[in-house]
Amino acid sequence: MATTSAKKLVALIVDDDSINRAINMKCLDRVGFDHIKIAENGQEAVDYFQGGNQFDLVIMDMEMSIMNGIQDEVTADEEGWRSCRLAGDSPHVRAENRQ
Asked: How many domains does the chain divide into?
């Protein structure tokens, strides 16, 4: 009997707000992510990648006090970590941040 192994989906939520983290965790769980890791700031996210972790999706708060999402994205480009999808998240929508 042959077994098939479905790819396990792994996500990283980077947010300094515990309520936003909980909401994002619930959403990712509902759509089928198997493993969800948490970083409370951009530096922790960088540390995850430098530690060899790989993610299918990263949801990142764009307005954190320690290395925000925009700074983290620049670091990801410089380090060549763009093997995953990056989604920006923010409770505020400012004109200068819209793209």
From this structure: 1
Is there a domain that residue 55 lies in?
Answer: yes
Please tell me the pTM assigned to this model. Answer: 0.70
Residue type, 21: R
99 assigned to some structural domain = no
Alpha helices by DSSP H, listed for the chain, are 18-30, 42-50, 69-79
Count of Cβ atoms closer than 10 Å to residue 25 Cβ = 16
**Secondary-structure breakdown of the chain: helix, strand, coil percentages, each rounded to the nearest 5:** 35, 20, 45
In tens, the pLDDT along 72-96 reads 555 555 555 555 555 556 555 555 5
